[in-house]
Amino acid sequence: MWLKPEEILLKNAFKLWVTEKDNEYFILQRRRGYGEGGGGLTGLLVGTLDTVLDSTSKVAPYRILHHTPDSQVYWSIACGVTKEEIFQHWDWLQQNIMRTLSVFDSSEDITSFVQGKIRGLIAEEGKTSLVLEDDPEKFREALLRFEKWFELPPEEKLVTYYSCSYWKGKVPCQGWLYLSTNFLCFYSYLLGAEVKLVISWDEMWRLEKTSNVILTESIHVLAHGEDYYFSMLLHLNETFVIMEQLADYSIKRLFDKEAFQRVPALSDPLQITKRGLEAHAKSEQFRTFFRLPKEENLLEVHESFLWVPFSHFNTLGKICLSENYLCFASQDGSQCHIIIPMREVVNVEKPDSSSRALTVCVRGKRALRFSEVRDYQRLANTIRSRCGISASPQHSASSEVSRSKCRFTLYSSLLFSLWFAKDSSKAVSTEALMTVFHPQDVENLDPKMLKEKMKEQSWNIHFSEYGRGTSMFFTRKTRDLIVRGVPEALRGELWMLFSGAVNDMATHPGYYTELVEQSLGTSTLATDEIERDLHRSLPEHPAFQSDTGISALRRVLTAYAYRNPKIGYCQAMNILTSVLLLYAKEEEAFWLLVAVCERMLPDYFNRRIIGALVDQAVFEDLIRENLPQLVEHMTDLSFFSSVSLSWFLTLFISVLPIESAVNVVDCFFYDGIKAILQLGLAVLDYNMDALISCHDDAEAVTILNKFFDSVTNKDSPLPPTVQQASVGNNDKASHISVDISELIREAYEKYGNIRSEEVESSRKRNKLYVIQTLEDTTKQNVIRVVSQDVRFNASQLDELYNLFKRQHFLSCYWTMKSPALLHHDPSLAYLEQYQLGFQQFSVLFSLLEPWAFCTTKSTLSLWVFRLIDENQDGLVNFKEFCCALDTLYSGSFTNKLKFLFKLHLPPGYMPLWSLFTCRLYVSAFDLPEDGVIKKSPERGRGKVDLQAYLKQWQNEILKKEETIKDLPRINQTQFIQFSKTLYNIFHGDPEEELLYRAVAHVTSLLLRMEEVGRRLQEPSSPPESAKPASTTAAEESSTEEASTTPESSDTSSSHNSQDAGPDLSETEWSFSFEQVLASLLNEPAIVSFFERPVDIQAKVGQARVAQLKESRTS
C-alpha cells in the first residue's frame, strides 16, 4: 500500500528493521520478529509495540523507504502485509521510477519528484476507494491491520476503529477495537500473549453502557453466553452510538425483515461509513422528537435565539432543517418547540446583519424571528430555495404562484373525491362518527356540558396565544391542558396535530381515496381477518351497530393492509381504528393509523409483535427502578409482561371504559409511548398493597381487572349507552371509583421525569434481547421437532443448528440481494425460517461430511442436495440437513449404503452432464426471476391454501418407511459412478489398498452374477466358447481395478465398463440394492469401515473454526 511520504530519521532509531533489498534511492526492509528468524525476545517486543502504538511503520511487517546518497533523511513511501505485496511495489519502482531519476541534477529535485509521484498514486487509489473518513491516511493504516489480523472476506467493510482495553477476567488487555458492517473485532498482542475476538452483531444478546467499582465506565457486550467489557475509550459515547447503530442495522436486516426500511445511507452493506451511521442516528432522533415522516432527514442544525411572543423573551435553542420542515426546539427540549412545514412559509424577510437575525413569515399572518444565527445569510437562502421563494422584489408574485398551484392541487383532489363518492359502496365518510351518532346539544347546560365548554374556551385561549394548526408552539402549558383532558370537539384535530398525521395527509392529497378504490373487492388473508373482526370492534357502541361505522372501519383497515402488506392486518388494529374513527374523519383516521403503526409504535403490528415485547421489557426495567417494593415481593416480573400486553397493543382501550380510554389516547399522541409507560407504573403503584398481598397470579389479575372496571371519567359528556360500550363487567360496588384525569395527573407527577430519550435508548438495548429470545425459542422448537427423527443428542443438535443458521447468515452479510436473505420469512413455520440454497449447503456439508472425498466436492454435494430436497424447491431446511447427517454418522451399515445407493438414482444423480448442470442448478434455484422463492404469500396480498397444507400434513403422517425392496435397480452408468464414489470415500484411509481390492472383488462378483442370471433367462444357450471368454474378461477387469492406483481408479473403472459391454447382451445390465448389499456384506473391510464411529463433536468443533474461512474462499 502506498503511503503519504513521511520523514524518518534512521540514525537514532532502534534496530527494529532488517534490510532485504536496496539500491541508490530505495530500501526495502523487513520488521524484526516477522519472517525468517522472527522468534525470540525481539519478536515479542516488536509485536507488543505493533499492537499498542498507532503507526504504519510499526504495524506493517514490510516497508519501502526513499533516500538520496547525500542525505541522512529517509522517507517512508510504501508498506505491505506480505512479501508478495511489497515486492510488487518494489518492482513498480524499479520499472517506472529508477530510469527517470537519473535525469535530475539535485537530491531535492529527486525527492520532490518521488513524493509527488507517490501522492499522485494515492490520489488515484482514493478515487475508487470506499473509505470516506476524516483522516484517510490513518484509516488506510487501520484497514491494513484489520485485514491482516482477522482474515475476514475482502467484502467486509471496516466502519471505524478505536483504541481501548478489553477485560479478560480481571486483567485489562490494551489493544484495538474494530467495528465493521457485520462484526465487532478486537486485537491485542502484549509480550507474546495474543487476544483476538470476532463477534458478529447478529449473535449479540446485550449491548449497553455500564459502570462499577473497577470500571468507571465501559461497554458491555453479551454474546455466546459470555460477557465482554471494553473500557478506556477516549470517545465512549460516540463508540457506543456507532455500535448501537450497527447492531440495530444488522438485527433489522437479518432478523426483522418486516420492519426493515432501506435507508439510502444504509442500503448497501459495502457502503456503510461512520459518517453515514452518525447522520442516520441524528435523523432518526430528529424525526422521533418532531414526529416527522420517515422520508425526512436532518440536513442542517443552527444554534439561535427565537423570540417567544407569549413569554416576551428570546429563548436559546437549535434550528433543525430537513427537506420539507423547519423546526426549532429550546435548549432543554421541554420549554417549547415548533414545527413549520415549508409549504406554510410565505416569505423570508431580509436578514438583519447587526443582530444576525432573520424573520420567517408563515400563513395566518404570523412571523418567527430567529436571532444570533451564525450563518444567517446561508440559512435564509436555503429556506427560500426550499420554499420556492425568490429573494427579489417579485417574491410575492412567485409565492402567489406557488399558492395557486397548491389551491389547484387541493381543488383537483376535491373534484376527485366528489366523483369517487358517487359510488356509495366506496363513499368515504367526511365526518367523525361521534358527531353523527352523538351530536352535541348546544342548548344543553348540564354541569358536564358546561365543563366541556370551559375546556374548549381554555384551548381557544391557548390557540390565540400559541397559535393553532401546524405551526403552533408546543409548551409545558400544552401538556397541562392535555393532562386535564381534551374537549370532544377538538380531539380529532389535536390528535392529527400531535401525531404528525396532519403533515402526511397534506402532502398526499387523494392518496387515501385511491387506496380505497384499489383495495376494496380484493380477497386476501388480511381481508378475511378484517371481515371476521369488524363486528368485534366496540360492538356495544351505536356507531358500530350500523353499516356506516362498519363500512368506514372496513375501508380504513383494508386500505392500510393494501398500503403495507408487510403488516397487513393484526388483531388490536380494529379496536384502535374504531376509536380513531369516533373522533376523526375517515381519511384522518387512516393517517392516524399510519402514524401509530409506522412511527409511534414501530414493530407492534406484525406477526411477532416485537415492538410490544420490547416495550414490555422497557416497562420491566422501569418497574425495577421505580417500584422496588413490588420487585421484592414479585421477583419474576414476567407476570406483568403477560398482563400488560393488551395495555400496550390497544393503548388501554381494551381494559378501560371508552370514555376514560380516550383520555389516555390524548396523552399518547402528545407524549408517545412514554405516556403509556407512566400510566402503567401509576396503575401498579395505585394497587401496590393489594398486589403485594396476592398469593398467585390469578388473584393479581382479578385485582387489576376490578381496578380498571372502577375507572371513570366524571367529566365525560357522553351518554350512558356510549360510556358502557367497552366495559364487559361493570361491577363497581366492591371497588372505589377512580377518576381517569386524577390517575393521569398522578402518573405525570410521580413518573413524569422519565425522559423520551431514555425510553428510546432502553428500547434499542432491549430489542437485541427480545429478538435473540425469540430466535432461541425458534431454535428450541426446531430441535424438539428434529430430535424425534435423528439420533443426535440435544447438545449436538444445538451446535448443528448454530452452524446451519450461521451459514445462512454468511451468505447475507455482503449483499442486499442474497437468496438466503430473500428466502427468510418470519411468518413461516419454525423449520422453514432458515434454509440453505445449494452454495451455502455445499460449504457446510463439506465441513461436516464424515469421510474425506478426493474428487470434486461440489458434485457429490449437488447429489446429496438434490436427494434431501424433498419438495424440489432449491432449498434445504434444518430437518432435511440433519436427517442426512444422521444417516451418515449414526446409521447402520445398511442405511448408509442405502443412502449412497440413492445418491446415484434420480433426482440425486443425473447423466454425465451433471457437472455442467451444477452451475445451472445453483443459478436456477438460488435466485429466480423475481429474486425470491415464494414459500408463503405476503400477509396483505395473497391467500394461504389451507387445504394444501392439510393434505401435505396428512401425507407426512401416512408416509410409511421406505424398504430396500422399494428401491429401483441401478443401471450400468449409475453403478460405475457408484463404484467411483466408493473409491473416493476410501481415499486416504489407512486400509485404502484393502478397501480398493474389496470393491474390485464386489464389482467382479456382481458382473458375474448378472451375466449368469441373464444367460439363464435366454431361450437358447450360447456357444460354450463364449462363456469362459466372458468370465475371463470379468476376472481380468476386476484384477486390473484392484491393482490401479487411487489416482487412476476413475479412468480404469470407465475402461472396464467399456470392455465388458460388448461381451454382454445389447440390453444394459442393472443391479438391485439387495444384490449390492449382499455382495458388500461379504467384505469385512468395507463393513468395518462404514461401522467405524466418527466423532461428530470433533467435526462440529473444526467446522466452527473453519466456517468463516471457507466462506471467504468459496
From TrEMBL:
Gene3D superfamilies: EF-hand (1.10.238.10), Pleckstrin-homology domain (PH domain)/Phosphotyrosine-binding domain (PTB) (2.30.29.30), putative rabgap domain of human tbc1 domain family member 14 like domains (1.10.8.270), Ypt/Rab-GAP domain of gyp1p, domain 1 (1.10.10.750), Ypt/Rab-GAP domain of gyp1p, domain 3 (1.10.472.80). SMART domains: GRAM, TBC. It comes from the Eukaryota. Signal peptide: none annotated. Keywords: Calcium, Cytoplasm, GTPase activation, Metal-binding, Repeat. PROSITE patterns: EF_HAND_1 (PS00018), EF_HAND_2 (PS50222), TBC_RABGAP (PS50086). SUPFAM superfamilies: EF-hand (SSF47473), Ypt/Rab-GAP domain of gyp1p (SSF47923). Involved in vesicular recycling, probably as a RAB11B GTPase-activating protein. Interacts (via domain Rab-GAP TBC) with RAB11B (in GTP-bound form). This is TBC1 domain family member 8B. It comes from Amphiprion percula (Orange clownfish).
